[in-house]
Amino acid sequence: AVSPYVNSGVGVDSWLSRAEEIPSVRWFFDDPEDFRAFAEENGKKLMVSVSHGATGAIAALPGIALQLTLSLLTCFFLLLEGDRLRKWSSERIPLDPETQSDLSRKLNDIAYSSFLSMFFAALAQSGVVFLGFLVLKVPFAMLALGLAFLFAWIPIFGVTPVWAAAVVGLFLSGRSGAAFAMIGFGLVAGVVDNIVRPWVIRGRSDLHPLVSLVAIFGAIELFGILGVLVGPI
């Protein structure tokens, strides 16, 4: 029996036929059968990887939810009773008041500069991705802007998932030149992050940018999402 999805244009054969018409596919595969064999072999590997990744992501959701909850509670209590916590801890730390004041000021500067560096880096990266969507006339530019700004706060991923999705969509629609141009915008976004983040940190504290970067990644491994701010401190 023939699958109804083939006639409706959403079957695997239909997608492979469309992909064969993409100019970039013709550059690499002279024979359509070679492309189909390549697509089937790597498609199976991709599905296995995606299923494993999805399973791992679902398994990690409770931990991520717990980290977000603890982070929000920490921020809430620091904003609500930050002065009370500072006074309580200062009475129990075996340091003279002058040293405590100097240490508190430095930690405050580092935390504030770390937050600002991530904010402006996320703003710059999402702006570059948004510009790429507008210039290349990729749909859902405003959605891409919001997602890129959110993803930019996660150092491990950054804005890569956003512009990579656009690259895949452009290749599938036959716009190979625009896809390569979007890759260029993605690389520029990565470079902008490495420029803006150290520049902001250097402007507000004497913490070396390399030390701050290593501290952020190490603290994320130890403390989760809260490590973005805890690491540099």
Describe this structure in words.
The protein is built from 10 helices and no strands. It starts with a helix and ends with a helix. It has 233 residues and is mostly helical. It has helices spanning 4-7, 12-20, 23-28, 32-90, 97-135, 141-151, 160-172, 176-204, 209-223, 227-230.
Summarize the structure in short.
By secondary structure, the chain is an all-alpha fold. It has ten helices and no strands.
Q: What's the helix count? A: 10
Q: How many β-strand runs?
A: 0
Report the order of strands and helices: HHHHHHHHHH
Q: Shape from CA axes?
A: elongated
Helix content: over 70%
- CA radius of gyration is 24 Å
Mean pLDDT: 78
Descriptive labels:
mainly alpha; 10 helices; 0% strand
Layout of secondary structure:
Layout: H1 4-7, H2 12-20, H3 23-28, H4 32-90, H5 97-135, H6 141-151, H7 160-172, H8 176-204, H9 209-223, H10 227-230
